[in-house]
Amino acid sequence: MSRLALRPVPYSLDTDAAKQHFVVSPWEKSGASDDEAWDYTTTLQFRRRVYLEPEPLLQVLDVREGFELRFLTEWDSSLNSKLRGQGSPRRIILEAAEDSVEFIEKVRIPGEQSGGLLTLTSIVTVGDDPGRNTLPGTTIWTDSEVQILESGKSQMSVSLVSFSEYEAHVPDKDARWYIRLENDAFNLPITTAVQVLINSDHEDFSSYFTEEQPEHEKAGELAAQFFSFEIGRELVHRALMDEDFITVDKFDPGTLGASLRVMVATIFGNRDLSELRAMRQRQPAKFEAILQSNLLEV
Asked: In terms of CB atoms within 10 Å, which of 102, 152, 192, 196 comes out highest?
């Protein structure tokens, strides 16, 4: 009978004992000052000072001199699960003779790959030559910090209007809302490309956007969530009906077209846009099922 070979798996040593020997400064941002309007054309650069004590770490980890650590910073955006990346890994060799190791960690993030709330996470793991007590990839220390690039509020213009008085500009005066796209919307920034009109004639619906209703707070949250889903759903449908959205090679960063390309890729994977348009027309039930199951996670 053959023996089953068991392979050890990296684990975590992210303990208070190890953490106290790492000191990091807050992240400093360059490329856009705190009071400067950030946009998708701005490449951000973050830097922080890192300080660690080799000899105490060797004792805490119970490893020999020359032990290798790897320092890496990852980042991700609250806007979309695909907006993530990492900096260059740095090797750190622990030698007892050294009182300290100090360096500047730098991360460069293209503007079109960020937005919303940006989370920067520094991770220290065991390197390729771990020794007897640890395995490559074992986590020694982590630290996360959130940078606010954009408000969590919608980037779209939302207006409360009476459709009965605005009838010439909406397809149906009895509708509860209408999403209006500007001409050439996919090449415009989201803030100017899309206008969401809410019909004030329907007070039961419009009140969710104009009044504080503590007694109906849960219902208001559900209504807002459904409304966000419905806006996303309609924008995906309109995009796949538009020939330019299908055929244009690449939209400029920060435009509605670029944002919807990311959204569609997140929902449907790497499927060709023409294939998705055909699915929408020929297999609408399948298209809607995929859209519905994934859109709320975007």
From this structure: 196
